[in-house]
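Section 5.1 Outputs to date
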Amino acid sequence: MRHQQLCSLLLTIFIIISNAERRKVRKRLRTHNDMPMDEQVDNKIEGTNKGLEVPRQASSEDSSYRFLNPFSLFSLVQFPNSECTSASTTQGTCYTGSQCTQRGGTADGSCASGFGVCCTFANDCNTETSQNGTYFNSPTTISSVCSLMINPMNDNICQVRLNFEKLQLRDPDETGACKSDYLQVTGGVSGSNIPTLCGNLAGQHVIYSAIPNFPARLSVVVDTQMAGVNREWQIKILQYECNSPALAPEGCLQYFTGISGNVSSFNWNTVDNVNLATASNHLANLDYSICLRRESGYCAVEWGVTPPADTQLGYFSLTGTLPAAAPIPVADALNG
């Protein structure tokens, strides 16, 4: 209560002083303007010769300065719109509450020392987005076609990355083709097209070059008549400006950074194909580039499988008949 009274008193003094200062300015202007023209000219000349103060009209900038600066009661807080972790552990962007609402996001936790909110964006079927960090989520009831239009945030967007945090569709058929279920990206994609994908793609990602002012359509197509798999997806859409250090080299469908990580083919898994136990999980007709960023201080890449290598049957292999439970020599497994 005492703190509130003190603030109220300071604010009252602040307004009284400001009003008094403004009245002085008006009185000075009125006195000066009431003088005959020849006296005004004489005063200006005389003031110049004798070093006296030359009267001048107070500008709005001067009065604003006087009004705003007797006391520094308030400060303008600015913070970058950087990535943040929401209260529900998803990734969002740090905005003010009003900015988040204007962009159609949801405030989920705080950021910037409490001055901002962690704003998340989530879209489901047949919607569109132009927000960085948008999540494209599967609905409770999955329809045969579910799509999201991805609009570039601005004209300086060069790449879009789709992170498959969750993505489970039906496996390919016995020929490796994605026929019953598949994901595809069409429309505003420059250069190499993204291949049609299906199966278990959790943890994978793809990158495409964006076309300014031309949206791309991200579509998930499902044959709802075929059961046997729990279809779901959560895809995070990241947009990168042309001067971003995170840009992948041109032509890379996948781009890995850091000094370690896992690289695997699409729909790599250790369980049988749900369509046919003897069919492969490899997707057919894939021809794409996987790129690795060379980290500072490193000059070579070593490839290997999760140890013990002699039990990792098929980790480095091509589609075809595999030896029945025959262990792969360690040297062969390490050398591919």
